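User: What would this chain look like folded?
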Amino acid sequence: MNHPTPGSVASPLDPVSDDPAADHAPAAGLPGADLPGSGLPAPDLPGADLLGTDLPGADLLRARVRAHAAELVAFRRDVHMHPELGREEFRTTALLAERLTRAGLQPRVLPAGTGLVCDIVPEGTPSGTPLLAFRADIDALPIDDAKTDVPYRSTVPGRAHACGHDVHTAVVLGTALVLAEAAEAGRLRQPVRLVFQPAEEVMPGGALDVIKAGGLEGVGRMFAVHCDPKVDVGRVGLRVGAITSACDRLVLSLDGPGGHTARPHLTTDLVGAVARMAADLPGALGRRVDPRWGVSLVWGRITSGSAANVIPQHAELEGTVRCLELAGWREAPELLHELIARMAEAHRAKWELTYHRGVPPVVNEAESVAQLDAAMHARFGGPRTTVVEDTEQSLGGEDFSWYLEKIPGALARLGVRDPAESGVRDLHQGTFDVDERAIGVGVELFCSLALEHARAL
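Assistant: Here's the prediction, encoded as structure tokens.
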């Protein structure tokens, strides 16, 4: 999918200020205009006055999306100010459940108390009709929010939405609100499931919680977006096949009797052992696998010792294994055990490997990608406007992969970069932020899929 024609960002994007509450009056008559705890009333953005007018189908959808834009920006900022880590997202779950219930829907909180699923089933839908699902992840990262120039900076030290999950959450919430209205008006022709998933950033990820709780039962196709700070707002990045990589976490523990640095020959030199293994294991693993698999072992932590003249009794290495292909993901654990055993024996060290299975690659199904492409061009495309761009496979892990192991679907990279900015606010950094116009793009894309361009099977 290559659309190289240069052009401007699609015209339907209206500006969102840094502080909408200061620039706009509260949105009178919009449900949920003032969100509890946010201190940020939703602004009355352009397009809200079109709500309920007799417009052609495409314009009516845009009007419905715009009618909720102010509230969704405020909701995103509220969640951004109150980030919660994986499986601790009780406040976020409660906010979502309350808003969905107020929209006339019946959300179902997952058994552990965080995350929820919510179905919209049009009246008269035959029993057994497959659902079309949209997924958002709702957890934050354990890092500090380094932004100092926005009113919605995290209020929780050491916690930040630095991966855009607050945006994903706002997109799927907006999708739910617009599709609930469409169902009420008799315009929704297929049943839809909204999945607000906890704990995407931890291993094992919350996608497995959703699946265990029956969240995929009856689902025929599933879509998600992930913020991409390298893609301009108004565009998405698409790819058929693997779009992310497999990712596992491992902890290697080494032990020995310890001793004096004056007599290393009488003990196990654990510092030397852990240093050699940290340096040699990645290359050794790379020589045992097909290079086309893209297997990458990278250490993030090394720990050993407490004094200059003491050979320690314990050392640890912690890191990740990432793979482009499923074959490499499946073979890596056994190969690492074999290589570690040989190296540890050479250094006379006892060892233990704790290998945490993370996620396989997200593999986008071709038909689902085609549906995303068609919906994006129908909603935002034009003769001089580039709205879809090819995207590369990344070495990042994403547990949306577990859903696509069972059903067809696709993950799109949602452009969140303000074209006026010269740099990139990268993911997993405390300075990460987004152009909030991306929320409306995501909502309109998902609603278009449900109403016009996608079928569950």
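The first helix runs from residue 20 to 23. If you want, I can go into more detail on any region.
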